[in-house]
Structures are given as C-alpha cells and as structure tokens.
Amino acid sequence: MAVTRKQPGMAIAVVALTAAFAGSTLLAAPIILYPISPSLPEVPYIRTINAIEVGTIVAFPMPDVARRFQRLRGQELPADFLFMKPIAAGPGDHVCNSMSHGLTINGVWRAETMAVDQDGRALPMWTECRRLGDQEYFMLSDHVPNSFDSRYFGPVQSVEILATYLPLY
Length: 169
Prior knowledge:
mainly beta; 2 helices; 169 residues; 33% strand; Umud Fragment, subunit A
C-alpha cells in the first residue's frame, strides 16, 4: 500500500496531475510515492517510464476486494489510495493459489497463502489455477511473508496500472 507523503527533512514535492480520456477521469500517477506498508522497503519511490513487466514495481488503485477488507478492519482509506507492489507474473504465466499448496508461478512454489491476518481476521482469497490473460499481472511482495497482494485480491488488469516505480535510494 502506498500514499504520497512528505518525509521530515526531505524537500520532496509530490505532483499529481489529472488526465481525462474518453470522457473519464483517470487517477494520476504521483511522481514520488512512499509505501506505508512493509510490502516494500520504506524509502521514497520515483515514477519511471519503464515497461510493465515481471520484476517491476507498480502503483495501482486499491482493488475493490481490498477496499471491502479494509472497511471490515475499520479502516476507511481515501478513494485515490494507491497500492504499490512488485509484479511476480504476467501475461501467459501459469499461476495457482490455494490454502493447501500456497502460491506457485509456472510450477515454482513462491509463497504461502494465509487464511487469517495478524489479528486473526479471515482474509479474502483468490483461489484459482490458470494462465494469466493478455492484460493481467499478478502482484507479490517477497519483502514480508504477510503482504496483502494478488494472493488475496487476484490479478490486476494492465489498464489499472498507473505507473512503474524505482526506489530513490
């Protein structure tokens, strides 16, 4: 998860632009993002023009499943709240996720899938075994084992990805 925020002692300006396309307002991708969850190292990240591909860190709006789960936890986050996650699988990759076997990507075990969060609340879960579509990406953070990522909210469509990011340092 990520939000834009200033770090004490840092002169980082966060610029957000709004774009319109086909009559719809799109969320803008801030130039600087700072993750507020331990899913990524807690340093500022800068927007890049890198391709959307496996291994890239991306920002995207909070999926509906995640928003509902946050509400159940008593957390109401802003409508423009962004998640930041690394891409672990992309179009054509075979992804399987289950409680009994955890997450595998192209037949390689990658992570456990947990039934409950750190407070004992049931987690939503994406439990499918299939090839990702042409515009689908699977997010997984291996920075911490309990990252709230695509194991719980499913693949993210490419049109939902706002930008790619790299750590500033």
